[in-house]
Write a structure and sequence with these properties.
By secondary structure, the chain is of the alpha+beta class. It has one helix at residues 50-62, and strands at 11-18, 33-37, 40-47. The chain has a three-stranded antiparallel β-sheet with strand order 1-3-2.
Length: 67
C-alpha cells in the first residue's frame, strides 16, 4: 500500500487589513478576490506555497496597509 502526501497543494487564505482596495488590484494580488467591508479589505484566494504567501504579505506591506 502506498500513501501519497502532497506537500505542495495550494491553501485557501483570507487576509484582512484596514483600508479599501478596488478590484483593479486583482492582478497585483495574483487573482485573489478582493472584497471591501466596513473600511476593511478582505483578500481571499489560494496561495501556492509559503514563499507566495510571504510575497503576498510583502505586497500588502508595500501598500502601507500593515498597521
Amino acid at each position: 500500500m502506498t500513501t501519497k502526501h502532497s506537500w505542495y497543494t495550494s491553501e485557501q487564505y483570507q487576509i484582512k487589513f484596514k483600508g479599501v482596495l478596488g478590484n483593479q488590484w486583482c492582478d497585483w494580488f495574483e487573482g485573489m478576490t478582493i472584497e471591501s467591508r466596513d473600511g476593511m479589505t478582505i483578500l481571499t484566494g489560494k496561495v501556492a506555497d509559503q514563499a507566495a504567501l510571504h510575497g503576498l504579505l510583502d505586497r500588502i506591506h508595500d501598500l502601507g496597509r500593515h498597521r
